[in-house]
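Re: that backbone. Tokens:
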């Protein structure tokens, strides 16, 4: 785990850390259990609960091949093959998916946070240590948070219940401006933490990686389905967790308060129009606009 953390922190290549594992294997006494390669190390991490799920997707963003479509060979909406086409001809490579969604379930991450007494204590900061003088210093001071507590008292009475924010946007991981490839990570931010920890990389949970070659656009809801299922479970029934700080079991629930995104991504997530003559998602049909003839643009 320490070596994996150093790899991520300093940007080591897979080849470099594999050679380091090989060197440590020779350096340590015989019969040591250190992995001999980075591939073996990743398998060890998966067994510790850092697992992920690869879900095949329709290349046209119609469906995910899960639940009732888990064994389907082609998309029931557009009839596109599930498998990748060969370069020459229309034949497909069986077993090579045309598009893959990487899903990292958030519930195991929450379990690990509460099993650490220090982190479990930090998750109670908003209830035990926050200054409550009517001023806006933390997300718990906002009207949205207070409305949730008032409307659902059973949720608000348990200070360990988690309030989340969802963030997503597209970026080009290969840093080539001429490339049309776009990857969309979907992350969760935990607002129970103190302000100086909320946005730290350590507590930002990556849940989805929607790979290219093109952005999902308004079909992003298709890819959010597995995450939404887990969030519904956390809201409706909750999950049994062990709190290392209070040394007791409790039923954890979570709520998604808001999303964080730029204006175009807001349109994709909400389904509202964010361009053209009806670009205001609040006013909609009553949007006040004026077309600038000489600039060929619309102002509002």
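Recovered sequence:
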């Amino acid at each position: 785990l320490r070596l994996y953390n150093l790899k991520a922190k300093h940007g080591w290549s897979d080849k470099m850390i594999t050679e380091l594992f090989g060197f440590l294997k020779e350096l340590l006494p015989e019969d040591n259990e250190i992995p001999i390669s980075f591939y073996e190390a990743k398998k060890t991490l998966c067994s510790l609960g850092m697992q992920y799920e690869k879900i095949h997707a329709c290349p046209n963003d119609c469906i995910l091949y899960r639940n009732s479509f888990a064994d389907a060979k082609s998309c029931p909406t557009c009839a596109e093959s599930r498998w990748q086409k060969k370069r020459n001809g229309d034949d497909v490579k069986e077993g090579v998916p045309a598009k893959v969604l990487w899903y990292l379930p958030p519930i195991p991450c929450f379990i690990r946070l509460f099993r650490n007494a220090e982190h479990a204590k930090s998750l109670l900061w908003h209830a035990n240590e926050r200054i409550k003088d009517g001023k806006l210093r933390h997300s718990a001071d906002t009207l949205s948070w207070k409305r949730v507590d008032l409307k659902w008292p059973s949720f608000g009475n348990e200070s360990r219940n988690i309030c989340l924010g969802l963030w997503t946007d597209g970026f080009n991981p290969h840093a080539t401006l001429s490339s049309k490839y776009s990857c969309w990570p979907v992350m969760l931010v935990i607002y129970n933490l103190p302000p100086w920890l909320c946005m730290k990389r350590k507590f930002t949970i990556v849940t989805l990686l929607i790979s290219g070659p093109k952005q999902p656009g308004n079909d992003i809801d298709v890819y959010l389905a597995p995450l939404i299922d887990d969030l519904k479970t956390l809201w409706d029934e909750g999950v049994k967790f062990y709190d290392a700080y209070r040394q007791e079991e409790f039923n954890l629930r979570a709520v998604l308060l808001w999303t964080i995104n730029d204006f175009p991504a807001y349109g994709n997530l909400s389904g509202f129009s964010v361009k053209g003559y009806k670009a205001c998602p609040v006013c909609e049909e009553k949007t006040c606009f004026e077309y600038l003839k000489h600039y060929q643009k619309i102002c509002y």
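The mean pLDDT is 88. DSSP finds eleven helices and twelve strands in the chain.
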